[in-house]
Write a structure and sequence with these properties.
Layout lengths: L1 E4 L27 H7 L4 E5 L2 H14 L3 E5 L9 H16 L2 H4 L4 H13 L4 E3 L4 E4 L10 H18 L6 H15 L1 E2 L8 H7 L1 E2 L1 H14 L4 E8 L2 E9 L5 E4 L1 H7 L5 E3 L1 H5 L2 E3 L1 H10 L16 E2 L5 E5 L6 E7 L6 E5 L2 E2 L5 E6 L2 E6 L1 H4 L5 E9 L6 E9 L9 E5 L3 E3 L9 E6 L5 E3 L4 E4 L3 E11 L2 E12 L2
Parallel strand pairs: 1-5, 2-3, 6-7, 14-21, 22-28
Antiparallel strand pairs: 1-3, 4-5, 8-9, 8-12, 9-10, 10-11, 13-15, 15-19, 16-17, 16-20, 18-19, 20-21, 23-26, 24-27, 25-26, 27-28
Helix pairs in contact: 2-3, 3-5, 5-12, 6-9, 7-9, 7-10
C-alpha cells in the first residue's frame, strides 16, 4: 500500500480550495502554480510494517506539515477501511497537538470531508497481487510551518479577546464574529490569497479562509461550528454550519454575506441554503444522520434575564442559632439552571439545596456548610444559565462561635483556679479534658485547677447541632 500524503495542516483548516462566492462579480479559483509545482515534487518516503506505524507517520505529517509516501504491507489492500484509517489519524493528531478546540470537531463531517477530497482528487489503484494502494494529488491550502501555525493561533486568540464577547449569548457571539470578519476582510478576486496567513497579512482571502477563520473564532468563543464544502451556484465552495442554543444547526456563508453586504445566508435553514448551495453528497449523508438542521431560518428572541424580586440582599449566619440561610424570590425565566459560588469558588450540593414554590426558586445554604466558613464577610454569587451569564451577588456575614480563651496562655500558680468561658448560646454540650492531669485538672463545669509546676493545655470540645469544634487553652503553672 502506498500513501502519498501531501503537505497538510492541523485539521482546523478546510481540506479543499473554495471557488464560489456570489455569482454576480467573483472569479473562479484555480490551484496556484506554486502549489501545483509543490504537488509534483518528491515526498519523503517511509516504510510501515504495521497499522500503528502507518497512523503515526500520517499523524506526524499532519502536525509537521510535510508530505510523505508510505509503503505499507498488508494481507489484502482491498480490506483497508480508509474512513477508519483517517479517523484514527485525526484522533491521534488531536491528542498530540493538545488543543481543546480541535478534539471537539473530529466528527463524521470532518472525516467525510477529508475522505471525499482524497477520493475525488486522487488516483486510487488497488492490486490484490501486490497488496498496494496508491493515493496521489492530495492538494489543499496549508500552513507552511509550525511557526506560522502558532502565529495564526495567536491572531485568532487576540481577535476573540478584543471582541469581548464572553458574556454574550450564542447568537450574539456568532453575529459579532461574523460582522468582524466582514468588516476586516475582503474577497480576493485574484485568487492568490488562499490561507489564513494570507488573510491576516493581506486583508483579502477566498471562501476557504472565510470559513476557516469563522470556524476557529466561533469554536474559541465556545460556539459549536463545522466546516462544510460543496458547491455554491454550481461552483466549488465552502461555508459553515453553526449550532444555536436550541440545539439545532444552521448554515452561515460569511463569504457570500460579505460580497452581497447582507445577512441572507446568516443562520439559514435548508430552504434558503439549498436553493443556492449544494452540500457534498458524503457530507450531506453525515448531516442527515447526525445533525438537526431546520427548514426555516433561525429566529432570535432576546433572552429575559432571571428576576430577583427579594428585597433582602444581605444575610447573616450565626453559629449560635445554627440556622440555614435561605435566598428566596428567584424566578428563572429563560434560564434553565444556575450555579452558586461563595467568594468565587463553586459550591456543590448538598452544601445547598433548591426548592420550587409558586414558580419561585428558594436556595438554601445549609448550616453544616456555613460552619466551614471563617468569621467575616463573604460574597454569594448566583450565576444563571440564561445565555447572557447573568449573575446576582449577595452579602453574607458569618458569625461563628468564639471561645475567648482559645489560643491564649494562662499563667497560674500551684493551687490557683481558673474558670473557662462557656457562653455558646442554647442547645450545646461542652466537654473538657487535660493534656496532663499531673499539672492541671479540669472539671465538667470548666474550672481549671493548677496541680504542680509545668506546662499543659485544656481541650474544650463544643458540640452544637450536627457539628463540633475543639478549642485549646494553654497553661503555664509556676510554684507559689
Amino acid at each position: 500500500m502506498v500513501f502519498k500524503f501531501r503537505k497538510s495542516i492541523s485539521f482546523i483548516l478546510v481540506f479543499c480550495l473554495c471557488i464560489s462566492v456570489p455569482v454576480k462579480c467573483f472569479a473562479v479559483e484555480n490551484v496556484p502554480e506554486a502549489q501545483q509545482s509543490y504537488l509534483n515534487s518528491k515526498p519523503t518516503k517511509y516504510t510501515a510494517n504495521d497499522y500503528t506505524t502507518l497512523v503515526e507517520i500520517l499523524r506526524d505529517a499532519v502536525i509537521e506539515c510535510k508530505e510523505v509516501e508510505v509503503n505499507y504491507s498488508c494481507i489484502n489492500a482491498s480490506n483497508v477501511d480508509l474512513n477508519a484509517l483517517w479517523r484514527t489519524v485525526f484522533n491521534s493528531q488531536s491528542a498530540a497537538i493538545d488543543k481543546d478546540y480541535v478534539s471537539d470537531f473530529v466528527d463524521d463531517i470532518m472525516i467525510a470531508q477529508f475522505n471525499r477530497y482524497i477520493v475525488s482528487n486522487s488516483q486510487v489503484v488497488i492490486s490484490q497481487d501486490e497488496c498496494t494502494i496508491a493515493i496521489y494529488n492530495i492538494n489543499y491550502s496549508s500552513r507552511t510551518d509550525k511557526y506560522i501555525a502558532g502565529t495564526i493561533d495567536k491572531m485568532l486568540d487576540d481577535a476573540i479577546s478584543e471582541l469581548n464577547i464572553e458574556n454574550l449569548t450564542r447568537y450574539e457571539k456568532t453575529l459579532k464574529i461574523h460582522d468582524w470578519i466582514c468588516d476586516n476582510f475582503e474577497y480576493d478576486y485574484s485568487i492568490n490569497n488562499i490561507t489564513m496567513r494570507d488573510g491576516f497579512n493581506n486583508g483579502t482571502m477566498i471562501c476557504t479562509t472565510y470559513a476557516n477563520i469563522f470556524f476557529n473564532m466561533l469554536n474559541r468563543a465556545g460556539v459549536p461550528c463545522r466546516l462544510i464544502c460543496g458547491a455554491g451556484s454550481s461552483q466549488l465552495h465552502g461555508w459553515n454550519l453553526v449550532q444555536m442554543s436550541n440545539d439545532k444547526w444552521y448554515y452561515v456563508d460569511v463569504t457570500w454575506n460579505d460580497g452581497l453586504s447582507s445577512k441572507t445566508y446568516f443562520l439559514s435553514g435548508t430552504a434558503a441554503t439549498y436553493s443556492t448551495h449544494t452540500v457534498d453528497s458524503l457530507i450531506l449523508a453525515c448531516l442527515n444522520t447526525h445533525y438537526d438542521i431546520p427548514y426555516d431560518n433561525y429566529t432570535y428572541i432576546l433572552p429575559i434575564d432571571p428576576l430577583i424580586y427579594t428585597d433582602e440582599k444581605s444575610f447573616t449566619y450565626n453559629e449560635r442559632d445554627d440556622s440555614d440561610v435561605k435566598i428566596t424570590g428567584i424566578k428563572l425565566n429563560d434560564a434553565k439552571d444556575f450555579t452558586v459560588y461563595i467568594d468565587n469558588e463553586k459550591i456543590m450540593m448538598p452544601s445547598y439545596s433548591t426548592e420550587l414554590i409558586d414558580e419561585s426558586q428558594i436556595i438554601t445554604l445549609n448550616s453544616l456548610f456555613l460552619h466551614t466558613l471563617s468569621n467575616g464577610n463573604h460574597t454569594i454569587s448566583i450565576i444563571f444559565d440564561d445565555e447572557r451569564t447573568t449573575s446576582v451577588n449577595f452579602d453574607l456575614s458569618v458569625s461563628k462561635l468564639v471561645f475567648k480563651d482559645e489560643g491564649k496562655t494562662k499563667k497560674l500558680k500551684v493551687k490557683d483556679k481558673y474558670i473557662l468561658s462557656k457562653d455558646f448560646g442554647d442547645d450545646y454540650t461542652i466537654k473538657f479534658s487535660s493534656s496532663n492531669k499531673k499539672i492541671i485538672k479540669v472539671n465538667a463545669g470548666g474550672t481549671v485547677t493548677a496541680v504542680k509546676k509545668g506546662k499543659a493545655h485544656i481541650i474544650a470540645t463544643v458540640t452544637k447541632g450536627l457539628y463540633s469544634s475543639k478549642f485549646i487553652v494553654n497553661f503555664n503553672i509556676s510554684q507559689k
